[in-house]
Design goal:
It is built from nine helices and six strands. The protein is of the alpha/beta class. Strands 1, 2, 3, 4, 5 and 6 form a six-stranded mixed β-sheet that branches.
Length: 235
């Protein structure tokens, strides 16, 4: 059954085109749908990441970024629903953008049409640590802190899960006072370059603008693991 699910996503075929050696395609699809709904796949991924961390195989210099996926018009043929009760509307608008999809959907409108943005945090080897889905037109920076809050790697035996990276590698889109202050408060090294406009504003203010932003340029080169992770997922 698991091999059938992997085959389907690996080859990009329709469920009904699964080879007969995997059994009835309806059975494979139903099991996959059930595991998706009840969180089984999330538990499997969490167990695998925890095992890797226990073996010292997780690199805690975490890279974050986002990628946009075009959404086919058939992806939005469900009835519209207002944001679920009990969830802050302002929070969901900040993360998902101004759309009326349910909070577990992430379809928005931009110049390219209907699109979804995948926000991803990976370790130094490209392993997925946290994923958020948002609307395609939403910015990267507002999703950064919720993305970091989603990092929870269980430890073997008793003890709280690990949630704090040693460093955060991100591009200029994540350069904000809020993000940098949050990282300082948690003792996380910010490896984030400063955009030219922010450099100009700081220089214009003189001594009131604060010190220039400094970051580890050699460590920043390792940020490409998140790009490789996106390429692997999209393949």
């Amino acid at each position: 059954m698991v091999e059938g699910i992997v085959h389907r996503y690996r080859c990009g075929v329709a469920w009904r085109d699964l080879p007969e050696r995997f059994g009835p395609w309806q059975t494979v699809w139903k099991r996959h749908a059930r595991f998706s709904r009840d969180g089984t796949w999330d538990k499997v991924l969490a167990a695998v990441i925890a095992s890797a961390d226990a073996a010292g195989d997780v690199e805690w210099a975490v890279s974050v970024d986002s990628t946009v996926n075009r959404a086919h018009q058939h992806a939005t043929n469900l009835p519209r629903a207002e944001i679920s009760a009990g969830v802050s509307a302002n929070y969901m608008k900040q993360i998902l953008g101004p759309c009326t999809e349910p909070p577990d959907h992430g379809i928005g409108r931009s110049r390219g049409g209907l699109s979804t943005k995948v926000h991803h945090a990976v370790d130094g080897r490209g392993r997925p640590l946290s994923i958020l889905i948002g609307a395609g037109q939403a910015g990267d920076a507002p999703a950064c802190l919720p993305l970091l809050a989603g990092i929870r790697v269980a430890r073997p035996g008793p003890g709280r899960p690990r949630t704090r990276p040693t460093a955060l590698l991100a591009d200029r889109a994540y350069s904000s006072k809020t993000i940098r202050a949050h990282l300082r408060s948690r003792g996380i090294t910010a490896v984030i370059p400063e955009p030219r406009d922010q450099q100009g504003h700081r220089a214009h203010r003189g001594s009131r603008g604060g010190r220039p932003v400094n970051y580890d340029r050699e460590l920043y080169k390792k940020r490409n693991v998140v790009e490789g992770s996106f390429a692997l997922l999209k393949q």
